[in-house]
Amino acid sequence: METKYFITLDGPSHLYNANLIKELISGNHPLLTSLFRINPVPVPNWSGHFIMAVSHLFFSAFISEKIVLVLYLILTPLFFRKTILFFAPKNRWTTYFIFPFLHNHLFYFGFINMSLGIMFMFITISYFLHKCGRKSIKHIFVLSLLLCCLYFSHIMLFMITIALLLGLSVFFTDTGKWNGKLLIRNIREFRFRLYRLLIASVPWLLLTYFYFLKIDSIEKQPRTDLGELVKWITDIRPMLTICYCDHLIIYTRILLGLFVALLFVNLYFTLKKNTENTPSGIALNINLPGPSLLFAFFTISFLFLYLLVPNAIMMSDRLILLFYIFMVCWLALLKYPRALQIVSLIILLAVHFRFLAYHTASMKEASKNVEEIEEIANFIKPDNLVLALNYSDNWLYAHSTAYIGVNKPVIVLENYEASIAWFPLRWNERQFKTEPLTHYVYSNKDLACSYFTNHPVILWFFP
Q: I want to staple 332 with a disulfide (CB 3.0 to 4.6 A). Which of 94, 378, 388, 434 is the partner?
């Protein structure tokens, strides 16, 4: 990362609130304590805030943020690779399939906790596969700790991982025939892993139940137009991050063509290998590989959910990312001719580095703009209330005013996150005499000016 700050939509707000959490815990600023409180409900979305708040005790804000991002960008592909190689040791080249989806659109939306949830999902799967067949209480504890991290990162990915581990447990059994009946062998291994998973997950399943009991996180939103949803699939929406542009769609279409070609080539060679001409006709002897079948099932399930579920809490954006992540898991487990492996790897890495170059150039310019905002904090005294006017029409800077408070204990009034029940920090409404200012669009000048007019005691600050 060549830039000081890595700019995302919600990232500044997460970084700012992590700084507030650090200051609240230190207790050195009574005004902050009177205006904010830690959410009494153990909500998900804590992981990113916790890591940045702890890191901020020792490092500046931009380093704290980079620690989280580097963890995600390194550990996600590493444990994706470990997961794939557990089932397909010869498929080393397919472990690179995850690379184009590391820098996805939700990553640039600043969905840090969902990104960490994806990371912890692969870490948990890998640990379950490699370690949880051994007789040791330590492995139950570690598995439970990983599930804890998953819960406090992203509740949807926590539940998906539980379902995936249940499915993977089944594939540790062997099947055969005995007297014309289906025979299931090695059932002990299946039960052993199932019991361990149950013991490790019970506390966090109870916490999930408690969360849904206390927090209404369902938003009523209309279903996205079907034509738009299909376009997102063919354009590979997760890869179109900062700009949904034609010059980038060319590359995503190439990658989509590659994925479709890989599926059909695998199907062709699978049928060719397992087809036999007999006097009675064509006989098929196909043994579907268990893990790839499971990931195919999840891929298709996410596709149906993506097309059917309303777009509440940006659900369509989340589901299309999960659809592609599980698709590359599925593709990575299949077998292909050697020549196709080499060609596919060249195409995939070429597309990946093209997008990486685009992201790097975009971040350099964005970081310069944000550093100017950060410098404004030098003229603001600690514990001051700040109402910043944002005149930008670029969605990437919608919450950039939060950078004013990432290194100093100031109160940036536009803090949408503290008004939402499923985030770690909340406004303390009993002490705060004005209505909290929330903002979800680009420029906030009209909303902020109206707010200042109605609350003239607030310090009005021009960035």
A: 94
Tokens 């999902």 map to which residue? 121
Residue 131 pLDDT class (50, 70, 90 cuts): confident
What digits encode the pLDDT tens for the residues 283-312?
556 555 578 889 999 999 999 999 988 766
Question: Could you report the per-residue pLDDT of 144-188, keeping only the tens digit for each?
Answer: 999 999 999 999 999 999 999 998 888 766 544 445 444 455 667
Structure confidence by residue, pLDDT tens digits, 342-355: 899 999 999 999 99
pLDDT digits (tens, 9 = 90+) for 176-233: 444 544 445 566 767 777 888 899 999 999 999 999 888 877 666 677 788 899 999 9
Cβ proximity of 118 and 80 under 8 Å: no
Q: Show contacts of 334-342: CB within 8 Å, 24+ apart.
A: 334/94, 334/262, 334/263, 334/266, 334/292, 335/88, 335/91, 335/266, 335/269, 336/262, 336/265, 336/266, 336/269, 337/265, 337/269, 340/261, 340/262, 340/265, 341/93, 341/94, 342/93
Within 10 angstroms of residue 13's Cβ, the number of other Cβ atoms is: 26
Q: What phi and psi values does residue 414 have, to the nearest 5 degrees?
A: -85, 90
Q: Which residue in the block uniquely carries the two structure tokens 């995939």?
A: 348
Q: How far apart are CA 14 and CA 399, in angstroms?
A: 10
Q: Give the pLDDT score at 407.
A: 87
Separation CA 90–CA 333 (nearest Å): 10
Q: How many CB atoms lie within 10 A of CB 282?
A: 9
Kindly tell me the sign of the dihedral angle through the C-alpha atoms of 85, 88, 90, 95: negative
What is the rounded end-to-end Cα distance, in angstroms, of the chain?
A: 27
Residue 446 structure tokens: 């009209």
β-bridge mates for residue 183, sequence order: 176
Asked whether 448 and 388 are in contact (CB, 8 A), the reply is yes
- What single letter denotes the amino acid at residue 426? R
Cβ–Cβ under 8 Å, residues 399 and 431 = no
Are the C-beta atoms of 373 and 400 separated by less than 8 Å?
yes
